[in-house]
């Protein structure tokens, strides 16, 4: 991998293959999220509707790529798995979740967690957000 990344903070020779693969995934997530930002800004600024739709399509593709990489990280980094399961796909205030996870506050009721699960399952069936839907069309 020599020269493949200028963002390593330690010598490649002292890093494990797992750490190097995790680095590859994390850098790739950063690149995908940066592309999401670029496409969203370009779409918002575009004067041509067809160009805007193409840019938004590209943005959604980048979100898909970032999601796939996040899932790889979750599967390959136990602490990430634990944190993702704690914070993602919830409705409670994020800092309340942190306080409950750290034992500083009572955990949200099981009923609320079940409702979050039901609502998340329904979200999967919802159509993707498009410019037309934002304009009410």
SSE layout:
Layout lengths: L16 H29 L3 H28 L1 H10 L6 H8 L8 H16 L5 H4 L3
Helix pairs in contact: 1-2, 2-3
Instruction: Give the amount of beta strand, in percent.
Output: under 5%
Low-confidence stretches: none
Number of domains: 2
The helix/strand series, from N terminus to C terminus, equals HHHHHH
How many β strands by DSSP? 0
Question: Could you walk me through the main structural features you see in this protein, from its secondary elements to its overall organization?
Answer:
- The chain is an all-alpha fold.
- The protein has 2 domains: 15-88; 89-120, no CATH class.
- 69% of the residues lie in helices and 0% in strands.
- The model has no long low-confidence stretch (mean pLDDT 83).
């Amino acid at each position: 991998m020599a020269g493949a990344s200028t963002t390593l903070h330690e010598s490649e020779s002292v890093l494990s293959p797992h750490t190097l693969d995790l680095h590859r995934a994390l850098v790739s997530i950063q690149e995908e999220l940066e592309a999401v930002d670029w496409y969203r800004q370009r779409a918002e600024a575009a004067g041509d509707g067809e160009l805007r739709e193409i840019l938004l399509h590209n943005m959604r593709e980048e979100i898909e790529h970032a999601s796939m990489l996040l899932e790889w990280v979750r599967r390959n980094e136990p602490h990430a798995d634990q944190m993702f399961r704690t914070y993602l796909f919830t409705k409670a205030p994020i800092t309340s979740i942190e306080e409950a996870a750290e034992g500083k506050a009572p955990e949200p009721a099981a009923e609320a967690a079940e409702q979050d699960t039901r609502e998340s399952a329904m979200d999967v069936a919802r159509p993707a957000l498009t410019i037309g839907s934002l304009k009410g069309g």
